[in-house]
Amino acid sequence: MGTYRSAVSALALALGVAAGAGAAQAEDIVIAHVYGKTGALEAYAKQSHTGLMMGLEYATDGTMEIDGNKIVVIEKDTQLKPDIGKAALAEAYGDDDAVLAVGPVSSGVALAMLPVAEEYEKILLVEPAVADSITGENWNRYVFRTGRNSSQDAISNAVALGKDGVKIATLAQDYAFGRDGVAAFREALDGTGAELVFEEYVPTDTQDFTASAQRIFDALKDEEGRKFLFIIWAGGNNPIGKINAMDPSRFGIEIATGGNILAAMAAYKDLPGMEGATYYYYEIPENPINDWLVKEHQARFNEPPDFFTAGGMAAGIAVVEALRKAGSTDTEDLIAAMEGMEFETPKGKMVFRPEDHQALQSMYHFKIRVDPDVAWGIPELVEELKIEDMDIPIRN
């Protein structure tokens, strides 16, 4: 496996303890959740962990056991730093003897973690990091993903916005999530009749969007036809409200974006009729699992489940289904069980594509409706884009 792994294993054996696993016994099934508990994506992380635990609970009928073996979940904080994420995953596999790991939140951290899964020959179930390259050029056979990828985001949003004569500019964060998202969106627009005419990238910690907005306005203002600024953004300081305050409508420019967490969608209230596509909104899917999630989440937390809660739950269900199907915690048995595996989630059916282990799944074309009694813009369903409706490229 390599000298690093051997050294870690020897150290754990010498200490006679699995660091961080606490009172885990030999028959326990240790799952590591390696994710950015602190930092700019903390809200996403909290939802993801809540969903993961609820998914494990749901799939085990509340026992948190599989065939009498207890599921033990250990948490490790990446702090949204690739080097820390890489070390935390190595620790989970090597010291804590985790059967598999779930996470992380950030695409940049995920890309750093992929080689660790390959080194230790253990599964990393990516949720919710989005960049195409995770199940694309940087992928290895130990990587699976329940989260949607950039292409799924892009294709569904291209369906919403891509019409003859439409001109689009993009604003995205300057790292893997933003770059991969725009690249996939550009490709998805091909053949729709729409044209991507300008791309703007900014650092993730940008506070002042004045210069970026002016460049975007200058690029679009003299274009004919319907014009959109499509924003791809993760985490805090979402620019939608700030740019909308600059009145892009005076140039005939409409703002468009995908789904987001409920707090971020408060800014959507100023954009009634805005169209886009989303991964999840709690009122859209109609199935027993989503019914259970909405009811239980409301009862426990006095609020509906959010965007990343559904993803975390999908990951938890996938873990249990894989372990049951494999009848083993052996990595090769799990890979064989998971390739092509179909499983039900709050969104309905997902399928792990054998070629790249990406979960194929529905996406939802929406239009924003405003209700004065609701704190966010409500994404009302226009059309469910099912697995068979989207040709998601294989990029590895």
Topology:
Blueprint: H1 3-15, E1 29-35, H2 42-59, E2 65-66, E3 69-77, H3 82-94, E4 100-102, H4 107-120, E5 123-126, E6 143-145, H5 150-161, E7 167-173, H6 176-189, E8 195-202, H7 210-220, E9 227-232, H8 240-244, E10 253-257, E11 275-278, H9 288-301, H10 307-326, H11 331-338, E12 342-345, E13 348-352, E14 359-360, E15 363-369, E16 378-385
Parallel strand pairs: 1-3, 1-4, 4-5, 5-6, 7-8, 7-9, 9-10
Antiparallel strand pairs: 2-3, 11-15, 12-13, 13-14, 15-16
Structural description of this entry:
Residues 1-26 form the signal peptide. Pfam families: Peripla_BP_6. With 396 residues, the chain is of the alpha/beta class. 36% of the residues lie in helices and 21% in strands. The chain has 11 helices and 16 strands. The strands form 4 sheets. It has a 6-stranded mixed sheet, sandwiched between helices. It has a 4-stranded parallel sheet with strand order 8-7-9-10, with helices on both faces. It has a 3-stranded antiparallel sheet with strand order 11-15-16. Helix 3 (82-94) runs parallel beside helix 4 (107-120). It is globular and about 65 Å long.
Give the key terms.
396 residues; alpha/beta; six-stranded mixed beta sheet; four-stranded parallel beta sheet; 11 helices
What's the total count of β strands?
A: 16
How far from one another are the termini?
Answer: 24 Å
What is the rounded Rg?
21 Å
Helix count, DSSP H or I runs of 4 or more residues: 11
Q: What is the CATH superfamily classification of the largest domain?
A: Response regulator
Secondary structure category: alpha/beta
The share of residues in helices is 25-40%
Write the CATH architecture name of the largest domain: 3-Layer(aba) Sandwich
Which CATH class of the largest domain? Alpha Beta
Named CATH topology of the largest domain: Rossmann fold
